[in-house]
Design brief:
Layout: H1 3-19, H2 33-50, E1 62-65, H3 71-78, E2 86-90, H4 93-102, E3 107-110, E4 122-128, H5 137-149, E5 151-162, H6 176-179, E6 184-191, H7 197-200, H8 207-215, E7 224-230, H9 234-243, E8 255-256, E9 263-264, H10 265-285
Parallel strand pairs: 1-2, 1-4, 2-3, 4-5
Antiparallel strand pairs: 5-7, 6-7, 8-9
Length: about 290
C-alpha cells in the first residue's frame, strides 16, 4: 500500500468513525426523511437496471463494493440474489463485523487495502455511494480498474452515487463513463432522491409526460446518478471490428468495378449481348475457302 493510499483510507475511516460509530445505525430512515427517500430511489434505479440483464438474477455471481454495514447487500438479496453468490467488501473492519452479525449468509470481507481485492470473476459488480467517499481521483481510478477486471466477459457494473464526491473526499465530479472507459453504457439516469412530477402524475394519454416536462425545472434538482454498464463480450468485440472502416472506398452494390470505369450490371449484360452479335456477323461475312 502506497503512502498516498494509506492517507486516503485513513481519512475515510476517520470520517465514518465520526458519522457512523461502530455498532450504531448512522443513517436510519426512521430518523431522516432523506435516508428514507434515498433507499426508495436506490431500489427503483437498481430494479430498472437489473431488468436489463437477461440472465436469471438468482444465477448471478455478484460483488458488492463498499458494502458498509450491509444495507446494499441486503437489498440485493431482497431482489433475488442468492446469499452464497454474493461477496461484499469494505475498508472498515467495524462495519464488516456489524454486517456479518446481521447477515451471516452473505460472504463479507474486510480489505485493509486494494492489494487485498478478492479474486474471481463476477457477473455483476455493484457500488452504491462508495466512490463519493473515496478520497482523491487516484484511489477512485484504481478501484474502478479493479472492478472492471473483476467482471467476466459480458458482465455488468451497476453504479449508484452522488454527482460529486463528499467534502472530505475532494468534491470532484463523479463520471462513471470516464472511470470505466472500456465498458458499454446501457442506461444512465440523473435523479433527485425525492419524487418528481413524473412519479406523481398519471399518464393521461401523454399529457402527464408533457406537464412533467414543462414543470420539471420547478422540482428538486438532480443529486444522484445511476448507470448500468456492460463488459464487451468476445462476440460483440468481433462485431465491432467488422463494423470498423477498412480504408477502402465504399462500392455501390449496383456497380461492377472493372479495369476502366464502373459499369452497372444491367449495362454489362447489354454490352455482352452486343459483342456476341458482332462476332456472329463478322463470322458470317468472311469469304469461304
Amino acid at each position: 500500500m502506497t503512502t498516498q493510499e494509506e492517507k486516503a483510507l485513513a481519512a475515510l475511516r476517520q470520517e465514518y468513525a465520526r458519522e457512523e460509530p461502530a455498532g450504531t445505525e448512522g443513517w436510519s430512515p426512521l430518523q431522516f426523511d432523506r435516508e428514507m427517500w434515498h433507499r426508495v430511489r436506490l431500489t427503483t434505479e437498481l430494479c430498472r437496471c437489473l431488468r436489463l440483464i437477461p440472465a436469471p438474477i438468482a444465477n448471478l455471481r455478484v460483488l458488492d463494493v463498499g458494502c458498509g454495514v450491509g444495507r446494499s447487500s441486503r437489498l440485493l438479496v431482497d431482489l433475488g440474489i442468492e446469499p452464497q453468490n454474493l461477496v461484499a467488501i469494505d475498508f472498515r473492519e467495524s462495519a464488516i463485523a456489524d454486517a456479518r452479525r446481521k447477515n451471516p449468509a452473505i460472504q463479507f470481507q474486510n480489505i485493509a487495502s486494494l492489494s487485498e481485492w478478492p479474486r474471481g470473476s463476477f457477473d455483476l459488480v455493484v457500488q452504491s455511494t462508495a466512490f463519493s467517499s473515496l478520497p482523491g481521483s487516484k484511489l477512485r481510478k484504481e478501484t474502478a480498474s479493479l472492478m472492471e477486471r473483476s467482471i467476466r466477459e459480458g458482465g455488468y457494473v451497476f453504479w449508484w452515487d452522488l454527482l460529486f464526491a463528499l467534502r472530505f473526499a475532494g468534491e470532484e465530479m463523479l463520471d462513471p463513463k470516464s472511470l470505466f472507459p472500456g465498458l458499454e453504457l446501457l442506461r444512465e439516469s440523473r435523479v433527485s432522491l425525492y419524487p418528481d412530477l413524473s412519479d406523481c402524475l398519471r399518464r393521461l394519454h401523454g399529457v402527464g409526460n408533457w406537464i412533467s416536462s414543462a414543470l420539471g425545472p420547478l422540482g428538486h434538482r438532480a443529486t444522484h446518478q445511476s448507470a448500468l454498464m456492460r463488459h464487451p463480450s468476445l462476440v460483440s468485440r468481433r462485431n465491432a471490428q467488422l463494423r470498423q472502416p477498412t480504408g477502402k472506398p465504399p462500392v455501390d452494390p449496383g456497380f461492377e468495378v472493372g479495369a476502366e470505369a464502373p459499369v452497372r450490371g444491367c449495362q454489362r449484360q447489354q454490352l455482352n449481348r452486343t459483342s456476341s452479335l458482332g462476332r456472329l456477323v463478322r463470322t458470317m461475312s468472311k469469304p469461304s475457302g
